[in-house]
Specification:
- 57% of the residues lie in helices and 3% in strands.
- It is built from 10 helices and 2 strands; from the N terminus they run ααααααααααββ.
- A two-stranded antiparallel sheet has the order 1-2.
Length: 230
């Protein structure tokens, strides 16, 4: 039987890519507060009815960073419900609501469900890897946390709340998230297949910039070239 216990998150050694995503998302929230003139505060509300009682107890007992805790609770919720669009919609609404309650008020504007549909292949791959042996408490939460935070990052880039600030290329952000979120080296052709609306020229330019900045490293050469986060 699955046990709901998130205490491991409080002293969890985060990989560098997750630390980077956390920093970016916290920076987005601070920027949102400055531009919306909305101070960060936890939104008081009743416990979400969609969250099962045993799962809610584990969630409320944890003092972990909400950006790490919420995807764990959502994964457990999805694993305990019948698979389908209704369960997914309820889980997404729950995730955004919990994040807003925890002070990440920018998330109320995030089209997370739309973003999941856009990157459904990668989402499903992360979800399936994370839920392996769920009943035996063998969940690999890290895979789902990484994908969840990557999608939140893309939501923030796709719908920025800073009209006066220069717009960052959504396509470039999608390429960066795809490469940085891949557990294995990924080729230019694979990126173009996953992002059909992005031109090969844009993919090549973005990969070059990422290599120069040191965020990724290039493995191989010519057509055999692959890219993986540094």
């Amino acid at each position: 039987m699955h046990k709901y216990d998130y205490s491991f998150l409080e002293n969890f050694p985060l990989p560098e890519n997750l630390k980077g995503l956390l920093t970016c998302l916290k920076g987005m929230q601070e920027k949102y507060e400055r531009e919306a003139r909305e101070p960060r505060q936890k939104v008081k509300s009743e416990p979400p009815a969609a969250l099962p009682e045993h799962l809610l107890a584990a969630y409320e007992a944890s003092g972990a960073e909400p950006l790490l805790l919420v995807p764990c609770a959502v994964l457990d919720m999805l694993c305990s419900l019948p698979e389908g669009e209704g369960s997914m919609h309820a889980a997404i609404e729950l995730a955004l609501g919990l994040l807003c309650q925890s002070g990440y008020t920018m998330c109320r504007h995030f089209p997370l469900e739309e973003m999941i549909c856009r990157y459904l292949y990668f989402y499903r791959r992360a979800f399936d890897r994370a839920k392996s042996h769920w009943e035996q408490n063998g969940s690999e939460y890290l895979f789902y946390i990484e994908m969840f935070l990557s999608l939140l990052y893309l939501c923030g880039q796709d719908k920025p709340k800073a009209p006066a600030a220069p717009r960052r290329s959504t396509k470039r952000a999608a390429i960066e998230a795809l490469v940085l979120g891949s557990e294995v080296p990924i080729s230019k052709a694979e990126i173009c297949t996953a992002l059909p609306d992005v031109s090969p020229t844009t993919v090549e330019a973005t990969l070059g910039a990422m290599v120069r900045s040191g965020s990724v490293r290039k493995v191989g050469a010519a057509r055999a070239a692959r890219y993986i986060r540094a």
